Amino acid sequence: MSRSDGEAPRFAIIGAGISGILCAIKLLEAGHRNIIVYEKGDGVGGTWHRNTYPGLFCDVPSHTYCYSFEPNPEWSQVFSPGREILSYLEHTVAKYGVDQFIRYSEEVTACEYTGNQWRLTTKLESSDLADFIICATGVLHHPHYPKIPGLEKFEGHIIHSARWDHEVQLENKRIAVVGNGSTGVQLVAELASNSKHLVHYQRTPQWIRPIENPHFSEEQKRQFRLHPELLQEMRRDPAFYQTVNDFSTAITGPESDVAWGLQEFLAQNLEASVSNPLLKEKLLPDHRAGCKRIVSSPNYYQQIQRDNVDTVTCGIREIDARGVRDNDGGYHRFDIIALATGYNTLQFMRPMRVIGHNGVDLNERWAKRPAAYLATSVPDFPNFFMMSGPNGPIGNASLIDVSEMQWEYISQLIDVVLDKNLKGICVSNSAFEDFEERRIKAAKTTLFATGCDSWYLDDEGVPATWPWSMEHFEVMMKAPILDDYDHFR
Question: What is the pLDDT of residues 153-166, one digit of tens each?
Fold first, then answer.
């Protein structure tokens, strides 16, 4: 690069979750040492650090949900509990020496391109200069709090799933779970057995994919330790990737046999699992399977049928000091209200202020909707790359697989800048606009656009996630089309 001081290029990574950790490891492997990782929390792990609610597990098989270069023989179950994933990430950070480059509890509030480098400012009012910014903030870090009349009047405990308070005693309590995505389902399945009374408030029933989650035996784990090739075989589990491919086919072909076959399979699961006709009617979704993110659970249908559990689908009218009144006039008293109401997923790195070339403000660029070329680059923001940025295939596959693909792509752009002694590189306006036009057109034909309300939709109802197959994403990540990029000299 055209650096007058002769120093090695400076890399700033924002976020120490799965993607940020990966980027730091790969930069170190490439011989870069002038690295800093800014993490607004007090530990690594991103969503796995912030989310610690009861019943949390990952719905991607454990041996697939790990870095390809760091298999783990110690997973306890086929689908890992959240605490084990966090321990795995902490172990990986220590093993690869990433921890010495992380600044904890230091949130980046602004990034401004100076014409040669990026100036970063943090909430602690410190300042830094970087040649490259890799924004690995993810999408699941701004909790969404519902606007329910009277919520502030409740005198019991209100706990958001992303800010769980483990000092609150749960056993033999009256608990309301508000929300019915993966988190709500996991909370209900975990809390139902020991609660005095649990009510699941759900606006929209979900399609539930049945899974089994057995424990690995000590002998199996011993074999994994002795034979690393077994771990690689587990990571390339054909059954999982067939599921990913089938889901991809369903998403991109809503009228395909695969899409309708998926719906029939999930409908049969509901029919076979729930005996009460009235409850079955409450739990039957009114949208196509796959329009929302399909929820995986080994026991939700069993737990929701317990005598101490009720399901309310008519919506909440108001909350008072002691409980919740629904829109049908029903009233329940509670000790605890658990909010499983998700995140503001269109924030990405915001409210961080990002100012690019010629003073272009990212907020203004994203005034209509967040968008990025191949989920990585935005025009007028040279050397500012995103991991799991807008329009990526989140929810379609293992995030770690996606992150490793994205890093291979971004690392090639970094090499171009360094090898050609450029100031920077970013996607051109013409390539971005062409991509965005094609993406929106394709998104409107996907299963995500068949009429349900989901966190995949932007403010105009356009699905914000990757609208093509995973195979296509993998191909696009193999090598950048350099003609699509502006070079800053």
Answer: 999 999 999 999 99
